[in-house]
Specification:
Strand content: 15-25%
Helix content: 25-40%
Structural class: alpha+beta
Largest sheet: 4 strands, mixed
Strand order of the largest sheet: 2-1-4-3
Radius of gyration: 30 Å
Number of helices: 4
Shape: elongated
Oligomer: single chain
Distance between the termini: 77 Å
Length: 99
């Protein structure tokens, strides 16, 4: 018996789990609350599609985003796109680093 007590006294509890104890009467109050949530519709027509060409600076900040077909953008912004260094393509998006 003495050995068990000495061993138990040296044991340290090491746990990353945090327990929260709630009184049973508060749990009943939480379960008793019921509200009707009104239904609503989201209008997603204003959400922009992903840009076709994105220009970023050396800090990873977006400098410019171009939307539309790649051929049309190459005609209108040829100098800007040619001055950037191509980084990667993700789906239909292309990323360029601005010097």
């Amino acid at each position: 018996m003495a050995l068990t007590i000495l061993w138990a006294a040296k044991v340290e509890a090491k746990s990353d789990i945090v327990s929260v104890v709630m009184p049973m009467d508060s749990i009943e109050r939480v379960e008793g609350i019921k509200e009707d949530v009104p239904a609503f519709e989201l209008d997603l027509s204003d959400i922009r599609e992903f840009p076709t060409v994105t220009l970023i600076n050396k800090y990873g900040e977006v400098v410019a985003e171009f939307y539309g077909s790649k051929t049309e953008l190459e005609k209108r912004f040829k100098e800007v796109i040619d001055n950037g260094d191509f980084l990667t393509t993700v789906g239909k998006q292309e990323f360029y680093l601005v010097r």
